[in-house]
């Protein structure tokens, strides 16, 4: 069922074994991520596989019927929605999902890639974008396509990825507050090392600019997307004499933290301060008041990434794409015109 | 590396093929969940495998290094913690986790079991307990152990399972309210078809009895563990002229719903009504006020289930066990003495 075309000049495994002065079985071990090969030999063979433009013909599709989903950390409702989206499309295609947590180092152990090479999945979906060049080459020579979902940093141009319209989301959230009449609008951004955070922050700035509201850098704080960061930044911002009348948080968890900061200071949301979140995780609707937030279509993004990896499998010469799905503002009860 | 002993009188596959009047390759297809065998022949071979006490010798352990985790529905923070616990122990043991969502029918499609038989995982962790006798036999003849995690119904005596001390949790939650001075204590139970819900309800009743408080059946309502059920039941209970001064909810989501019911009726938690939840999902700490709840050690339960399935794999003759982990009450800000 392999749709891949065999290039006429493609190196065979026998040629690679000959060039590396090793047996076919040694090449096969490297190709399948198995033990019993020295690091030096492994490296030599990987180099030859790459420079020869080797690409394994698709046979695993019928065997394993696996798709791999790799997180740094499975630690929020956010992760859960990604899992559900991938699981749904995988099931439609008769595939099983292998879930891996790399352990939050934004980098993967060598074991991880060996496991993938052994299992020969149909494809890999990564929740981070900084895959090393070596790992990219290893996946390419084994003909295992991969897609980066919601990249935290700038994805390389040679990587297919699915994200969402973060800039437009930041713009919509801030415009909503401007339209309610707010002028002192703060932002508790996510980590600025992440591209998505920077895009949301740019959207916030653009909305202020188009309304002719000067940007006050002291009203911009940043956290690591955790509840506690929202409590800390919210407390700092809301303790000021000239406190903001509205706060846009870089994600829902930070918005929940801002709620707590307001409660501790005796302020009422939205009477004293309006709050907008980002993501629209299920608990946004359980808060009191229910959180106005930017809906990020996480399940659809995960579905899209899974479909994209399957399309790349069927046609490895497909042009690589970056897909951004639309975000939308969901107005609930945490925003109101400013007092006064 | 198989530790399994081969019984001297064990039927061989050749004998089973002979008894079924089929070829060895047909028996092998059935054993490995592959297509190309009629239902009638498949059924005959399954029957012979079972009655002959056939048990495949463990060779897959080195090959697949997979463990399967099967949910009805991956739909709450609850699921996420289970996934994290299983993932953690799997990683320690060099295993990958295959995640399957059966689609919420509390029953599995035949495809599902074929997938398992093909993949030959080290073991299976099920988030529901009503596995059919046929499926149990199929797993047993392939020497694939399984463990039921947090059974919703009565687990069969021939099934290993990991749960938590639900009765003790219900007792502790209600005792806490009694000790604060509450006498009109309502319960919004989870679905009574689930054993865990019935155990929590029994714990609630036991705490009232030991305090000499008569049980008022009109103060007991039940939901399906959803936020909306908490809103509906909370609204009914708190709209009564003789409304309860405290509500024990069968899980945290229902407790969040009770918060909303109180807000809509202009009541303040905990001044007008105390609320206790069950589970201690992360968002319990994000609510205003932070929710007093019974901590269920979900991650530890998942870890324990994974270790148990690995132990069963190494020693299939191990005595089956049911492990219940302890629950503990976490007192936060949603409970206070009743207004006097």
TrEMBL record, chains A, B:
Keywords: DNA-binding, Transcription, Transcription regulation
Positions of the HTH lacI-type domain: 11-46
Keyword Transcription regulation: yes
SMART domains: HTH_LACI (SM00354)
Top-level taxon: Bacteria
InterPro entries: HTH_LacI, LacI/GalR-like_sensor, Lambda_DNA-bd_dom_sf, Peripla_BP_I
PANTHER family linked to this entry: LACI-RELATED TRANSCRIPTIONAL REPRESSOR, LACTOSE OPERON REPRESSOR
Protein name: LacI family transcriptional regulator
Annotated organism of origin: Lacisediminihabitans profunda
